[in-house]
Design a protein that fits this description.
With 91 residues, the protein is α+β, with helices and mostly antiparallel strands. Helix content is 18%, strand content 21%. The protein has a 4-stranded mixed beta sheet. Strand 3 and strand 4 form a beta hairpin. The longest helix is centred in the middle third of the chain and has 9 residues. It is globular, with a radius of gyration of 13 Å. The two termini are 19 Å apart.
Length: 91
């Protein structure tokens, strides 16, 4: 499996899966917010109904979201927004 990080326009990426962060308190990362806008609020609705809370380690795979080219979007819980740093992902 290959992984890459990009700053390209996410909704139009034709890749197998896009992974974006969700923080506690129903807060979407900037990348997730971009996908949310493209999907007419789908990501925010999923978060608000409690399917993912943003706790570290949580994941939720969404498929075939209208407005997003990628067939899959992986929401990844990353904890509290102000307390998450790059070091949290280093092992």
């Amino acid at each position: 499996m290959q992984y890459f990080v990009t700053k390209d326009v996410l909704p139009t990426q034709s890749i197998d899966c896009i992974a974006v962060a969700v923080f506690e308190g129903n807060q979407l990362s900037p990348a997730a917010a971009t996908l949310n806008t493209a999907s007419n609020g789908t990501l925010q609705r999923v978060v608000e109904r409690g399917d993912i809370s943003g706790k570290p380690g949580q994941t939720l795979l969404l498929q075939d979201i209208e407005g997003i080219s990628s067939p899959r979007v992986l929401l990844v819980g990353c904890g509290k927004f102000e307390k998450t740093t790059e070091n949290d992902f280093n092992t």
